[in-house]
Amino acid sequence: MNTDLSIFHLITEASFVVQFVMLILFTASLVSWTFIFSKRKELNRAIEITDEFEEQFWSGVSLSELYRKLAAKDFEPEGIEKIFLAGYKEFSRMRLSGNVEPAVQVESAQRVMRIELLRELDRLDEHLAFLATVGSTSPYVGLFGTVWGIMNSFMGLGNVKQATIATVAPGIAEALVATAIGLFAAIPAVVAYNRFSTRLDRLTGRYELFVEEFIVLLQRQAHSK
Asked: What Cα–Cα distance (Å) separates residue 115 from each residue in 109, 110, 153, 166?
């Protein structure tokens, strides 16, 4: 009787259904880690850009000068920069069109910024749903593989005259590996999802606060002439 209980042996000796479940979980884990690293980099970049922009915005530079500076960048603006550019561009366009009430100018800029803000949040939220799905379903997928493997092990006892621990242990161990892999896929996904969701919520608050503060400045500028 083969008593090799190494992980590799348990995986290779598992039934086809259990191996298929393990393959799904391994794939989900691999994709999750890919999204985790990319999302971490993306959020770090968004926060860094926000910090740099807010420092410039409140440094006393004029809005028109800041607009020209950002519009002339060699690479495409990101995050909060795009929200500012969209709002100021719309505000300037409405002012130059003539015969437009100050309140209408500001409201138009606010709508454009809200649209751009939602686009940025939608972009940053991408793949978080996948992490949440992996985190919530992987344990159950692994449990399905375990139940299937244990069921096969007990069905195999019908061909054995005397059942002992040594008889059923390999089959049960093979089945339990599926649960372990399910947890291996789920735990990092859940931790990453919670962490990224918290950071995204904070970034959303900063974006929304900036829009409100920027609107106040535009209202002053709209009534200045």
From this structure: 10, 9, 57, 65
Alpha-carbon distance 152 to 145, whole Å?
11
Cα gap 121→209, rounded to integer Å? 14
Number of domain units in the chain: 1
- Each residue's pLDDT tens digit, 82-98: 999 999 999 998 888 87
Report if residue 80 sits inside a domain.
Answer: yes
The answer to whether position 50 is within a domain reads: yes
| Domain membership flag for residue 2 | no
Whole-model pTM?
Answer: 0.83
State how far the Cα of 157 lies from the Cα of 168, in Å rounded to an integer.
Answer: 8
Which residue has 């970049």 as its token pair? 45
Residues of the domain holding 121: 7-222
d(CA 157, CA 144): 20
Sign of CA dihedral 198, 85, 117, 208: positive
Residue at 1 is within a domain: no
Give the three-state DSSP class for 35: helix
